[in-house]
Amino acid sequence: MRQTIYIETSIPSFYYEDRSDAAAVARREWTRQWWDNNRDVYDLVSSTAVIDELKDGKYAKKDNCLSLLDDIPLLVIEPETGDALHLALASHYKCDFLLTWNCKHLANANKFRHIRQINTLLGLFVPNLVTPLEL
User: Fold this and answer.
1) Which of the residue ranges 31-40, 62-71, 86-95 would you say has the lowest mean pLDDT?
2) CA 26/CA 14 separation, integer angstroms
3) What's the confidence (pLDDT) of residue 21?
4) 45/64 same-domain check
């Protein structure tokens, strides 16, 4: 069974990177080398969020970046994905609380303990996951 790789926005961006500083050139070359020589070993997927980010950018190779993903299946952002998205936003923006009635995936002690461990390990802020009754 082949492994699946999620292609995030920076991969097509660096494939067509045109900056000349050493770090950008190195990333462009590593990206191209991987893409051209190794991508067929994996099942590649991306998402509409990546397409939207690429479309929103103002850069010369936008169409090239988008076309790089033409044959790659796009993952659908399902309601369950939304839970992770909400947590990511609350963590990124350092919200003190994420207020929710979603006790199955977010506001419960077992999930909070796990989320706290992961966010701490990654150096991310940990919002309190609470229901309106807890505030």
Assistant:
1) 86-95
2) 10
3) 97
4) yes
